[in-house]
Specification:
This protein is an alpha/beta fold and 413 residues long. The protein contains 14 helices and 14 strands. The protein binds 4'-deoxy-4'-aminopyridoxal-5'-phosphate (PMP). The site of 4'-deoxy-4'-aminopyridoxal-5'-phosphate has 16 residues, from α3.
Length: 413
């Protein structure tokens, strides 16, 4: 009845066999599958559940909101509190609108960039995924890659023609692309740390270089922080990196597991929405249940110090994995930002989508299937990365390192 058995392709683990498993319940850092297998969850709903599963404060917040009604169709006070929280969390955001998903957030930011500048073209980077917006399903990562198709049928050639694709960490080529399309680029959208083709870190000065090029060419710089958000640290990647974009898209980790998204930024851009010149709409935007959960996340559950704790725990896991890699002389290395990490199966650092395609997918698959048979659920293959929640214990995290050691021993003996 359901195409592929799933409502989003990554859930079919298609890159590793295509048979989805079903989850019955989730608690703390663990999932219980429909056939009663318990898994320590390092996927965490593909990014949102930095708060862990079934948090009592989030549950209480939802229950309280539920008693007041599920949807009003008018502004509600929780939306204002959420706006204040986002502004305090990500100082580059001066005004913000809520959406129901990351896709809606990036889609709206792109429209805003086009409406503000009066230009048509946008630039994205190959391997970066920004949701299933037509204009962004061009050389995309993540679910699009899982399907083996980084582009998509149904995206018209006209739409695709307005999306220019550049290579991440390659400023000279980007600069040339800007020059060749002078006066035509409305916006440049980037995952500050590309996180849909493993985990790629920006070269020193790369993001500052983007900022400079965008300012020079009058192009709106959009940071897609859907995946980074508070998993990169309180303040998002923008806070960590110090480069200020014009607009930011948020979702996932700010929402307590509910359908959420937000886009915001400098007032001069967001005011084009205020005037109605650029349209942004949505029946469920700022839904009171979603806002209640999200407020609990940002104000109670994932406070700056607690969020920092996930990064520290992650650092210990990465150090343990790194020791194992080094002592076995494996062709692999670890990558981290904040609470996210991955083992990349290549000797050299992956700097762009081209490098990513050269990594060893067979070893990544072998590690995944080995782990899931020993109670460790990792994102399959190499297109995603693990996440540590505030509920993961030291023992749960180190269980992964133990299972990885076992995998490496089996691989090398
Ligand atoms: N941007 C990025 C960077 C993402 O990783 C994703 C989803 N994985 C999206 C946008 C789309 O978000 P959503 O699935 O909530 O529409």
């Amino acid at each position: 009845m359901i195409p592929g058995g799933v409502n989003s392709p990554v859930r079919a683990f298609r890159s590793v066999g295509g048979t989805p498993f079903f989850t019955k319940s989730a608690n703390g850092a663990r999932l219980t599958t429909a056939d009663d297998q318990e898994l320590v969850d390092f996927v965490l709903t593909w990014g949102p559940a930095i708060h862990g599963h079934n948090d009592p404060d989030i549950r209480a917040a939802i229950r309280e909101a539920l008693d007041r009604g599920t949807s009003f169709g008018t502004p509600n006070p929780l939306e204002v509190e959420m706006a204040e929280l986002i502004l305090s969390c990500v100082p580059a955001v001066k005004k913000v609108r809520m959406t129901n998903s990351g896709t809606e957030a990036t889609m709206s930011a792109i429209r805003l960039a086009r409406g503000y500048t009066g230009r048509n073209k946008i630039i994205k980077f190959s391997g970066c995924y920004h949701g299933h917006v037509d204009s962004l399903l061009v050389k995309a990562g993540s679910g699009a890659l899982t399907q083996g198709n980084p582009d998509s049928a149904g995206v018209t050639p006209g739409t695709a023609a307005d999306t220019l694709v550049a290579e991440y960490n390659n400023l000279p080529a980007l600069s040339a692309l800007f020059d060749a399309n002078a006066g035509q680029i409305a916006g440049l959208i980037v995952e500050p740390f590309p996180a849909n083709v493993g985990l790629i870190l920006p070269d020193a000065g790369f993001l500052a270089g983007l900022r400079e090029l965008c300012t020079k060419h009058g192009t709106v710089l959009i940071f897609d922080e859907v995946k980074t958000g508070i998993t990169a640290g309180w303040g998002g990647a923008t806070g960590v990196l110090g480069v200020q974009p014009d607009l930011i898209a948020l979702a996932k980790s700010i929402g307590g597991g509910f359908p959420i998204g937000a886009f915001g930024g400098k007032a001069e851009y967001m005011d084009v929405i205020t005037t109605g010149k650029v349209m942004h709409l949505g029946t469920y935007n700022g839904n009171p249940l979603v806002m209640a959960a999200a407020r609990a996340v940002l104000s109670e559950v994932c406070t700056p110090s607690v969020t920092q704790g996930t990064a520290e725990l992650n650092e210990r896991l990465l150090a343990a994995c790194n020791d194992i890699i080094v002592s076995a002389s494996l062709p692999a290395h670890t990558v981290q930002f904040g609470a996210k990490g991955c083992i990349t199966w290549s000797v050299n650092q992956v700097r762009n989508y081209r490098d990513y395609k050269e990594t060893d997918f067979d070893l990544a698959f072998a590690q995944w299937i080995h782990g899931i048979n020993r109670g460790v659920l990792l994102p399959p293959g190499l297109d995603e990365q693990w996440l540590i929640s505030v509920m993961h214990t030291d023992a749960e995290v180190m269980h992964y390192a133990d299972v990885f050691q076992e995998f490496v021993s089996e691989l090398t003996h």
